[in-house]
Specification:
The protein is mainly alpha-helical. It is about 65% helix and about 0% strand. It contains 2 helices and no strands.
Length: about 70
């Protein structure tokens, strides 16, 4: 139990030191001139939207179909 408490105490102490560490240098040239690029939203998002809509329609039809069978 003593080893466990010692290990836990060491982890907490080093974790606190890590929280208060200064941030690192971002690097790169500050005057590069290119604006930051956002996340690319392309055909993949459209495919996911179509798949989600198809799944929703299927679930809706299955739900209505089971009500008629009862």
């Amino acid at each position: 139990m003593k080893k466990f408490i010692s290990l836990l105490s060491a982890l907490i102490v080093f974790g606190v030191f890590n929280l208060y560490a200064p941030p690192g240098d971002p690097g790169g040239d500050p005057g590069a001139g290119d604006p930051p690029v956002g996340a690319p939203i392309d055909g993949g998002a459209v495919v996911l939207l179509i798949a989600g809509a198809a799944y929703g329609i299927k679930k809706y039809k299955d739900k209505n179909h089971t009500k008629e069978d009862i």
